[in-house]
Please model this.
Amino acid sequence: MAVSLDATDRKILRALQADASQSLEEIARQVGASKTPVWNRIRKLREAGVIRRQTAVLDPEALGLEACFFVLIRTSEHEAEWQKAFLKALLDRDEVLEAHRLAGDIDYILKVRVENARAYDVFYQALISEVRIYNVTALLSMEEIKSTFALPIPD
Model:
């Protein structure tokens, strides 16, 4: 369920999405309010679940993770036990940055970040050794054109 946000809440959220390491004083200055009311609003936004967590965004290439694959998975298995094993296999692998269950011809899409094609093959071999998969298509991203965690906050 969507939380009701006023203009000040939206300004705070935009400031936090731009840089959550900013001081409370800097955020308050951007919002045009004093620190205590801004802090109280941030606390309420956390309690309401609007702000899930604060984290650092790392550069994958600086860490040697130069290959990003989008993995399309089709399965002929739809039983609860298979889904449980598949979910566990995904959650146990740090290489899987995102996993989505889809409507349509493809059942799942994964975003996988690894060092290179050899590392992807190691990931792939481990995955198919744990769960039976009907078809896997791996697409190598040649260039990341846009990547953001910032959500569009309606006015």
Notes: The CA atoms of residues 59 and 92 lie 22 Å apart. The chain has a mean pLDDT of 96.
